[in-house]
Amino acid sequence: MRTRTRSSRRLAALAAAAALAAGALAGCAADDEPSTGATSGGGDGGKGKTTITVGVFGAFGLKEAGLYDQYTKLHPEIVIKQTSIERNENYYPQLLTHLGSGSGLADIQAVEVGNIAEVTATQGDKLVDLGKASGVQKDSFVPWKWEQATTKAGRTIGLGTDIGPEAICYRKDLFARAGLPTDRAEVGALWAGDWRKYLDAGKKFKAKAPKGSAFVDSASGVMAAVLGSSAERFYDADGKVVYKTNPAVKAAWDQSAAFAGNGLTAKLQQFTPSWDQGFSNNAFATVSCPPWMLGYIQDKAGAAGKDKWDVAAAPKPGNWGGSFLTVPEAGRNKEAAAELAAWLTAPEQQATLFAKRGSFPSSQAAYALPAVSGAKHPYFGNAPIGEIFVQAAKGVPVQILGPKDGIISQNLADVGMLQVDQKGTSSKDGWNAAVKAIDNALDQ
Fold it and tell me: I need a surface site. Which of 101, 122, 192, 334 has the fewest CB within 10 A?
């Protein structure tokens, strides 16, 4: 049975939160019409103009943030036409098919982080080396993001649009009732440097927890957050599947199972209706929280949650989410497309995307810009989210990504850990169920 991956769930969250992002930062629709820049119609962009086509998935944000319009004002000879497929599960197989045939491709194609390893390893020769494109500055990106889209031969085939450095969002009122500190610096100090301290904080919370409130939303959510802070997870540097023997994966599994075993979870599955309701009905006090999650929480918790939720640093820096822009070699306007991709991922444009859409920059050069460094979120008690997420981004490890990371992660969570959390299955039996499902999926 197909379930939604963390990548597709992230896209759903981005779509739900998009309307809130513009007003949230102080200091899944299809976009298949041309940008309203130089012209408003015509597949050829009008006489003498160059049309650049962009293929994305979900409410990607570039058009919604006004970046296409801004670019066409700067370059009146350009028309931008975007097409969007709502779900990455449908978009990505089509992209692979088009890359294989060398036809049906947009001039720019987006790639989700969960797919970038496979694209880099198997499709790298069919994509332009953007590391050599005009206007691209390698040093402006966080190093690990740049490396994710760089082939073994040193060709960088994707430019990062955003990343998802993780924090912990928490309920101040529930913490207070449980006798825990509420100041975000003191809260972060409870678990600083060690996910096991996060478990210890949960035990303290449970001892005096308000009735009906768990410490975390789900054991699977904890596991994903812990894994997100590990450099090596499912594959080793040689591309071998090693999740079964990797101590980091075992530690993440055991720690997450301990949350379930100690009764610290609300036994929910992320991005389901009951999980959505949990944000407003006191079901849980903490949740792993990349920048794009802030708008999602605001949407689901509503006006009643204002000033109840806050943001603290995670035990260890990790990442959840992010995408890339690529330029197919088969494209008709490769040079113009590469220039547009470079401009869209430049620091100033990434800062705009964060301010208007909540997508955190993969450009470290953007972190000093006021729109990022000075960003605060009034819904979360004016939390200095710019400072919090910049600090987290600087500490994210360079992760080894593999072509089937999504399949492994999905089955560990939705087949294995979900049974442990919701059904009381033993940790050993849950692990074995997940391994069996993964082996079947990978034909092993």
Answer: 101
Pairwise CA distance, residues 410 & 402, whole Å: 14
What is the C-alpha to C-alpha distance for residues 285 and 266, in angstroms, rounded to an integer?
Answer: 9
What pTM value is reported for the model?
0.83
User: Mean pLDDT by 10-residue block, N- to C-terminus, for the chain (444 residues)?
Assistant: 44 53 44 41 60 93 95 97 91 96 97 93 96 94 92 96 96 98 98 97 97 97 94 92 96 98 97 94 96 90 96 95 95 96 98 91 96 95 96 90 89 96 98 97 84
Identity at 325, one-letter amino acid code: L
Q: Any idea which residue has 């955003």 for tokens?
A: 162
User: Comparing C-alpha atoms, which of 335, 410, 325, 399 is closest to residue 363?
Assistant: 325
Cα distance between residue 94 and residue 228, in whole Å: 28
Full set of structural domains in the chain with CATH: 6-164+321-381 (3.40.190.10), 167-289+404-441 (3.40.190.10)
Quick one: which of 131, 130, 92 has its CA closest to 110? Answer: 92
